[in-house]
Amino acid sequence: MSNPPKGRPLDRSIVEGPIPRAVWMLAWPTMLQNIIGGMQGVVDHAMVGHYVGYTGNAAIGISWQIFLVVVVFITSLFTGMGVLVARFAGANEPDNVNRTVYQAFLTAMAMAVGVMAPVGFFLTPALLDLVNAVPEVQAEALPYLKIMFVFSLGNLLFYMLGGALRSAGDAKTPLRLGIALTVLNIVLNVILIRGLGPIPAFGTAGAAMGTVLSGGIVSATAIVLLFRGRLAVAFHRGMSLRPDMEVIRALFRFGLPTGFQGVAMNLGGVFLLRFIGSLEQSAAAQAAYSVSYVQLFSFITWSSVGIMGATAAVAGQNLGAKRPDRTIHGVHVAAGYGLGLAAIVGALFLLVPRTLLGVFGMDDPVVVDLGVELLAYLSVSGLFITVALTYTGGLQGTGDTKSPFFISVISQVIIPLGMCAVIQSMRGLQPVDIWLAIVIGHFTRCVLSVLRFRQGKWRYIEVGIRRTTA
């Protein structure tokens, strides 16, 4: 019998080479992947804005906010996977890296098919009612959201594989797969949103169809590469379908706090949409929020999340190699990268806001004015969120996933929603009040994340997994 594939050797430069190079080596492919991948959302919004109207933009923005509440909880186990993979990679234990990723793969499939699809499908109408979506927006959002929930497996597996490879020190393969995903998605969206030849125009629903089809095709290709031993992580046909409960418990022990964090933050976003829906010009405000915050602000969060992922890998691997001082240095370097990028994007928000909004077909004067106003606030908020996410990466990568949960509840839920509720009860809520609440929440998250990391309690976290060898 031939030996099963082992995969490529792990990259030891992350724990042995210069820290700035290690951080940048992982950060730039991830940032670029996030930006390129995020462009599929830009294409969705731009095409839907031109062919359906701003109600379609509002439908996609609202749908993603709802979808993320569920998907972030499901994908929280990938954070737990990242903690274990980074530790094992730092300790140069490739067999335990493969063991961890395989169990995350099995768990993701079970949860996507057994939980996400049925629950999301049946709860979609009630969730749309929760955010006060007007009837014309609900009509566009309902089919979009159902498609995203029911056929989400391919996209979940794509997220899983990308996280596993980055934690193992390979950020370039997820970039290549991400480019393929985005190109395929754009091609499918062009066909399915507007129609082509005998294929009818599906409008907003076509954007969801393109997303799930491209995710399924690229994920299937990536799984083949895993079984052929072409990547830093490898599967083989002899792997048992039986759950390894020791690993799965660890996945959820480290991942569940991140899941609760994601659910809390996105529920906060849903209730923030509810406040926006209560405004006098709710549809216009929701469209401005969907484009300015959900899409344009994502140019900051895409890069920041990329830096967060790189920080988590560098932090976790160096702690696994018993080099915590390199962990601290890595977080500081990554924060500097993030601030520079956020400042550049924030300047564009201030200098050419109407041009940016015009890309999405925003021509209604009320929507444009609200969008310009929100972008001015977000130009400042981006500086805070990029530092917050970098230090969150340092905490999560070392295994402290509980602190970011509590910090997020305070900064992204209690403070902004509480502020909106108080103002609404006192004098009536205006759009500018909601924009200011977003900035204050991001500032609070930044301060609390930095302070928690500086306490250094992450140094003493153990993964608690029995090491195995092939």
Descriptive notes:
The chain has one domain (18-459). The two termini are 15 Å apart. The mean pLDDT is 87. It has 17 helices and no strands. It is mainly α and 470 residues long. The chain is 80% helix and 0% strand.
Helix content: over 70%
* DSSP strand tally: 0
Please tell me the total number of domains: 1
- Work out the helix count: 17
The unreliable regions are none
Give the SSE order as H and E letters: HHHHHHHHHHHHHHHHH
- Beta-strand content estimate: under 5%
Structural class: mainly alpha
Shape: globular
State the end-to-end CA separation. Answer: 15 Å
Biggest sheet record: none
Keywords for this entry:
globular; 17 helices; 0% strand
